[in-house]
Amino acid sequence: MGTALHFRPWRLRLPRTFVAPPALRALAPRLARLRRHAGFLALTAALATAAFLSGPWFTDRPTRTAAGATAAVIDGDSLRAGHLDVRLIGIDAPDLRQACRDGDGRAWPCGRAAREELRALAARGDIACAAHGYDRYSRTLAVCSAGDIADLGEAMVRAGYAVDASGFTSRYAAAEAQARAQRRGIWRGPFEHPQDWRTGNKRRESVGWSGR
Q1: Are residues 40 and 87 in the same domain?
Q2: Residue 212 lies in a domain
Q3: pLDDT higher for 35 or 175?
Q4: Rounded to two decimals, what is the model's pTM?
């Protein structure tokens, strides 16, 4: 049960024997309006704060699960598990069309390799996803497990096929540091951050750049 919040607008209280001068009595209507406005603003701010704190972006508890499902992997950080279109929360994998460079400077299809890595991980067993909200494409943001793999997102980052994108929580920072140190996956050579690659690609496509 949540705790009920009660708000009481502030009031200017004067002694019973106080006799207001004419100038103060003239200000009484303005003071009354100010008091009503202050109460309304306090209530509005409190409701907005309560809505933020109760939103899916501010909780570690799952809101929905999909268990016992066979995953259809879409790319390196999204899949379809049962009836859910899922975006693995806190990671960002290369776009399917994206290429990276190895240690010798040779290009390799890191986007497709990331998808194959997630397919291999998802094949380890039944999928269970704990949802924590939605992205702008209406996909469910979730932490998913597969068989003996407790967190597919962490496994992708640790294997070097995705980067930590969990923001201020740094959920997968340690896994990313390990992949970088051991030059796994995309860390074997230079690469463009997936978000930067997508942004740049959209810009080039908007002006008709063919990429050749």
Answers
A1: no
A2: no
A3: 175
A4: 0.65
